[in-house]
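Run log // design_07
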């Protein structure tokens, strides 16, 4: 709808869109997941990602690049009914709390595809600790101050929790 409104004669006009009909047609949502896999192509590394599709579907896409991948982990990325987190929060935890290092482009000469989402010597226990501690995961903004990022499903807004260590629920109105 946004794209259509921008291309229509209403361009530049702020319009409130009545979604009543869509709300009655489209129900439910796909639960996001954190997943991890290993592959002989990138030995001693664990690839950690997220998906809003089925994990099996996402891993089948990765198998086109890494045919020998082995699924190591799968867990919901929902904190509660209104709040989810993304893989970059898990990545931050792996780096800061567990000291895991990201794959560098020049680490392996013949990689079929480079991704920064591979972590050296990361374990499923590390990933599980990050997911279990999702309310505590934090990232850095451009000024170097710590803050937490969660997505509030109902408002589709990023919720930043500045310097709070124990936030488990979304504070969105």
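design_07 sequence
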């Amino acid at each position: 709808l946004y794209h259509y409104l921008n291309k229509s004669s209403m361009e530049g006009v702020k319009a409130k869109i009545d979604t009543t009909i869509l709300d009655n047609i489209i129900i439910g949502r796909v639960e996001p997941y954190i997943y991890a896999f290993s592959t002989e192509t990138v030995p001693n590394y664990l690839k950690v990602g997220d998906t809003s599709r089925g994990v099996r579907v996402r891993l089948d896409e990765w198998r086109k690049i890494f045919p020998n991948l082995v699924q190591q982990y799968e867990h919901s990325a929902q904190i509660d009914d209104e709040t989810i987190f993304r893989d970059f929060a898990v990545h931050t935890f792996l780096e800061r709390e567990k000291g895991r290092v990201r794959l560098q482009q020049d680490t392996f000469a013949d990689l079929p595809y480079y991704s920064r989402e591979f972590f050296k010597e990361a374990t499923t226990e590390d990933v599980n600790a990050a997911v279990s501690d999702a309310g505590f995961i934090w990232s850095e903004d451009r000024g170097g101050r710590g803050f937490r990022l969660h997505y509030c499903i109902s408002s589709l807004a990023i919720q930043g929790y500045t310097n709070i260590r124990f936030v488990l629920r979304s504070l969105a109105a």
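The CA atoms of residues 59 and 170 lie 30 Å apart.
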